[in-house]
């Protein structure tokens, strides 16, 4: 196994740096739900001892990203369809609040950044769902930043990372890319127009699976 460099930022422990890397692997779909994480394999991958790996697994378990199964080790958590739908509903409210606050607080620079990312998103529509999803994440991150509420951004990001693998599946649903571009334009219009109520409403609708989209998602999930 080829060893990968592990960057440790100021104030981070080895365990928290490992947690960050493994969380990114889960969010990016490199570690699918149900994947077993082996202590020794992870330790060899990053060139560390097994002690920080165990602590990283505990940190991931506290965020409900993995399950600790005794001698079986850690397993990337799978989410049932009904729980997942509930999580999407909560996600819609959290991101809706981010959009509401952004409509009140976004600076001209932040509005320009959203517009630039949206233009890149439109260009990425022809490059397939993976690149589109990555740029889409940037767009949502820009709204978290524009909310000017660090705690809200952190909590929203935590839940987003728990459902990230499944949000990728939504991106692959028929017409979802086209609909996402249209919905993002509505969100930007509400934020730039300083309309908090509308910003919240359109963002919530953007994240919540309803009607045919919900039925299509359940069919694909099962």
Automatic annotation (TrEMBL):
Superkingdom, natural source: Bacteria
Gene Ontology MF term list: DNA binding; DNA-binding transcription factor activity
Domain HTH gntR-type residue range list: 12-79
InterPro entries xref list: GntR_C (IPR011711), TF_FadR/GntR_C (IPR008920), Tscrpt_reg_HTH_GntR (IPR000524), WH-like_DNA-bd_sf (IPR036388), WH_DNA-bd_sf (IPR036390)
Keywords attached to this entry: DNA-binding, Transcription, Transcription regulation
PROSITE patterns, alphabetized: HTH_GNTR
PANTHER family to which the protein is assigned, alphabetical: TRANSCRIPTIONAL REGULATOR, GNTR FAMILY, TRANSCRIPTIONAL REGULATORY PROTEIN
Protein's UniProt name: GntR family transcriptional regulator
Source organism: Roseomonas indoligenes
Upper classification of the organism: Bacteria, Pseudomonadati, Pseudomonadota, Alphaproteobacteria, Acetobacterales
